[in-house]
Amino acid sequence: MPLFDCGSFNIEVDEDGFMQDTGAWNQEIAGALANAEGVAEMTENHWKIVNYLREYYLKFGIAPMVRKLCKETGFSLKEIYTMFPSGPAKGACKVAGLAKPTGCV
Amino acid sequence: MAAKRITPDDISRPGGQLVELDPAQFRPLPSPYDKLELEPKIRCLTREQMDRFECGLDGVSAVMLPRPESENDKRAMLEKFLAGLKRLFNGHDNWTFLQPLLLTMEYCSQCQTCSGACRIFEESGEIEIYRPGYRSGILRRLYKKYVKSGGKILSRLSGNDIDLTWNLLARLLELSYRCTICRRCAQACPIGVDNGLVTREIRKIFSQELGIAPKQLHELGTVQHLRKGSSTGMTPPGFLDNIEFMEDEIREKTGLDFKWPIDKAGADILLVHNAGEYLAWPENPEAFAIILEAAGINYTLSSELSGYDGVNYGVWYDDMQLARVAVRHAGIAKKLGVKKIVIGECGHSHKSLTVIADRILTGDLNVPRESSLTFLNEIVKSGRLRLDPLRNADMQVTLHDPCNMVRLMGIVKPQREIIKAVCPNFREMMPNGVENFCCGGGGGFAIMPNLNFPDWRISVAGRAKLRQVLDVFQDIISSEHKKFLCAPCSNCKGQIRDLFSAYGVFERCNILYGGLAELIVNAMTDIKNPFQQWEWR
Amino acid sequence: MPALQISIYASLLIFAVGIVVKTIKISRMPIHLRWDLYPIPHEKGKERYGGSRHEDSDWWTKPVRSSIAGEVKEIAREIFGLKTLHRYNRGLWYFSFPFHLGLYALIGLIVLLSTGALLMMWGVDFSADSASLYIRLIRFSTIVVGALGWALGLIGSAGLLLTRTLRKNYREFSSVSNYFDLLLLLTLFAVGLSAWLSADLSYDFLRTFVHDLISFSATGDLPMLIRIEISLAAIFLAYLPFTTMTHFVAKFFTYHRVRWDDSPNAPGSRLERDVVEALGNRVSWTAPHIATGKTWSEGAAGDRGEPGN
């Protein structure tokens, strides 16, 4: 498995950089992953999105619908793309430690 | 430099990749993509990825087969492959497809008609290994040498000898994921040989005997579907949460306030969508809900495990998984006591449950299945909806025919009748109907985002579809005209989304894509605001 | 009885047994899952555009509208026009069509020669001097049909052989037998044509040979070229069942039993019984997720291969 360098330690990620063990997620890892996704700094808004994704994922075992993410956090899709340049699924979900989306999505 | 042509003998040879992919050699696209700089790149694997995964075919890895650690591992896998090869030609183990497979193995006349029908081969600039007959030629040689009696001597005499080496095995596995199983080749075959079937049968040896399949098809696909409820990972509570959200969305968008029927006993119809629709294109299931509510249909959705995801990835690689998913779906319908299952806009789910599984579902599991295209057409024709096609008049519309519904199921007219009833500006791309071109995401491709495989899927497999779409709108290709590609299939939509994104088709040409039910709702006069949002999704 | 005659009997026997065995073998293969491919010509009213009963709501409650005439028409187009090849590979059709037409003409030649031979057996005067208009018509047709057969066959097989040799696409995918089959036929056509032109313009020699075959009487001396011609025909007949040239048998199955087989699994039907039987097969595939050792029905009812599922 490829390793992702979080500074003082490494975590296992898949080929696209998604965390293998989503339970091991913490804020430090999120910060490091965000850096790699082209996020200069994790602002309060970034955390709002990441925390929502995380909460939803822990509750339902899957990422929320993108439209629900926008509605619940109050950001438009465009704003999310500005904050996470690779988008909600490949960017924000990755930072939140979610598994890579699968299926016909 | 003209490279040496690849022959079937080359597949066993040691060393690196057989073919280097160069977009400059692909068939040039029409305007505005007639410039090479607009061609998306096919990424090279990194050194480290190459060390870990087999990529000796064309430098692309769809399956991510790890390189074996020892010669012993290789030998063990070769032995298993051989055992699987033999099972493939045995009536007890492979009763499911033995007859068409053997006919294909024994009666090909090598007339090469299939090559001309294969869009991947043609659009790639005629790369030899993508020729339908190349793939089946390899399996035929293996069959003649290792399965038929006296094969070892006869194949040497016939000049069609082949050596089952590790390199062959690794390349053949990848090669079985360079064909979308659209079966245009079979349609063009004068003898009735089916090279598309060969693709699937090769995948079956790997899956059913060696336990090797792309993880999105198996582990995260059928296995997750059966155990967690959906290949998207959606659980029953997650499904219910999504429904609630879509109910809210409909209320906000249209003012219509109604509950979606879930697990409703006594319903006439069980409607099953591809669960990917809920996550990626919720406007499609929303449109279905609006139409069925307006038409007063007594139907239900299911929140049971697997009952809210109509996909069946087994159709692409494994007969047992295919059977399991089909039996699960039929069992849910049986329990609900519905009169029929209506299958949402998903091609492979149409074909697997309606046609292929017809010879798996017996007794009371054999609940009648119907296409949503047929079903929606009945509603549109019945006059129960008030429709004004002028509400769709601001755009030119064309239609993509999903292979699974059309060439492989014979559903050609309903979708056209619907579009003509709700869109005044409809144009057919060429060819269409049963002779259509695959979107390039078939055979499981659209859901396999491994390494650089998506690049190949877009530039090579999707090329024919992009060409067709550009051609049909060529006279109004500039972005001032709104153009819509209707693709009534989740898989096709996923592929078209990625294809259009990679080439920037929405930005450059203003062509949007989407499903069919949305067009109907957009024409419904009872809904004040346009349902169709002209924004990229 | 001369060896030449015996060899024809032997080859006819091998041919007949070979074809019958092959047909039985294919037809006895187990029932397979549906794998339709459209257009299907028996879909009445929909065959033109490739539609099916799946276009009709609640189709299972409606009578099946299947048309045998549609299938017959389509098969005739395939046999006599090589329709699919014409549509998808015109370049090859220009040779394959005369080649097949030549073969059909030669089958016609055999029928006409046999007709003559039978009439001879019944004591009808079949010589060129016969006063009967019908006899003269049959004699004339034999010559015309034969000439067409040899000439078209020769042109076709030469063209196919050249295509296979000169065009890389074909050469690299052709097997030794692909060449051998064509070469054998090319030789047969060439020898047949020269035998006719040089020694047997009226086909009296060949007709007499057929007469002797049918009546089991020893045949007399024949010109050399005709003897070679007959030997080649014997070799071809005996060899044919073992080659891909028996695609005329296979095609029945690939079309009727695969592409066009849309028979629904109606409750209580024979098909359903066959399906139940097939699902009773034990699975011996060994991948971890497969329920190895269980039946297909049992395997399909679970979600994994481990016991208890």
Task: Write up this protein.
The complex is a heterotrimer of chains A (105), B (537) and C (309). In chain A, 49% of the residues lie in helices and 6% in strands. With 105 residues, chain A is mostly helical. Chain A has a single domain, classed as Orthogonal Bundle (Arc Repressor Mutant, subunit A), CATH 1.10.10. Chain A has a two-stranded antiparallel ribbon with strand order 1-2. In chain A, α1 (27-36) packs antiparallel against α5. Chain A is globular and about 35 Å long. Chain B has 537 residues and is mainly α. Chain B folds into 3 domains: 65-210, Fumarate Reductase Iron-sulfur Protein, Chain B, domain 2 (Orthogonal Bundle); 218-377, Rossmann fold; 386-522. Chain B has 24 helices and 8 strands. Chain B has helices at residues 47-52, 71-88, 98-107, 113-117, 119-123, 132-147, 151-158, 166-175, 184-188, 195-210, 218-228, 236-254, 275-280, 283-294, 314-317, 319-336, 347-355, 372-382, 413-422, 453-461, 463-472, 490-503, 505-509, 517-522; strands at residues 269-272, 299-300, 340-343, 369-371, 396-399, 426-427, 483-486, 511-514. In chain B, α18 crosses α19 (413-422). Chain B is globular. The two termini of chain B are 42 Å apart. The mean pLDDT of chain B is 96. With 309 residues, chain C is mainly alpha-helical. Among the domains of chain C are: 82-240, no CATH class; 270-301, no CATH class. Chain C contains 12 helices and no strands. Chain C has helices at residues 3-27, 68-81, 83-88, 90-121, 133-166, 168-171, 176-199, 204-214, 224-239, 247-259, 270-279, 296-301. The longest helix of chain C has 34 residues, at 133-166. Chain C starts with a helix and ends in an 8-residue tail after the last helix. The interface between B and C is large, with 98 and 86 residues.
Q: What is the residue-averaged pLDDT of chain B?
A: 96
Mean pLDDT of chain C: 94
Outline the low-pLDDT stretches of chain C: 305-309
Largest interface: B-C, 98 and 86 residues
* Secondary structure category of chain C: mainly alpha
End-to-end Cα distance of chain C, whole Å, is 71 Å
| Portion in helices of chain B | 40-55%
Strand content of chain C: under 5%
The number of strands of chain B is: 8
How many domains make up the coordinates of chain B? 3
Task: Count every helix of chain C, treating DSSP H or I runs of 4 or more residues as helices.
Answer: 12
Secondary-structure element order of chain C, N to C: HHHHHHHHHHHH
Structural class of chain B: mainly alpha
Name of the level-1 CATH class of the largest domain in chain B: Alpha Beta
**What is the β-strand count of chain C?**
0
**Could you state the oligomeric state of the chains shown?**
heterotrimer
Distance N to C terminus of chain B: 42 Å
